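Input.
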Amino acid sequence: MGVSGCGKSTVGVRLAQLLGWEFHDGDDFHPPANKIKQGAGIPLDDHDRRPWLGAIRAFMEEAHSQGRHLVIPCSALRERYRDWLGRGLPWVQFVHLQGDKELIRERLKARTGHFMSPTLLDNQYATLEAPLDALTVDVGPPPESIASEIILRLRLRPLAVPKASRPSRS
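Output.
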């Protein structure tokens, strides 16, 4: 979790790769109207966010019931959003990617092909309620280092490779 441009998706992809978990970007759960609004530089309100976060929560619950492990980057800037996503459930863990606003602003300026307007960064920082119950990690180091730090600090273990997918030795 964290503000736009902090590296949630980049770190999330690497984390999922290292763990052998599924990666699903939280942005993919947004309805088109939310993307249009954010692309126009208009912040989402709770009315916009509730169905989006509800869709993520439902997906997480289904995956959990099937024994699947997920990494889902999502801004989750307010306490109530993290509550809606399942804070307190033993199988849900939040990692707050935190960094210098100017570093993130530069990353946003360099980013191409994303619907979120960089003009919303100040609004995101104003909205952010830093979590007290999440692992907080600095976004300055390379994504590989950040993902490794998350694994180490949360004591996560990669999934074993199923025997059926191992190459045979004939």
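Helices lie at 8-19, 32-39, 46-65, 79-85, 101-110, 121-127, 143-154.
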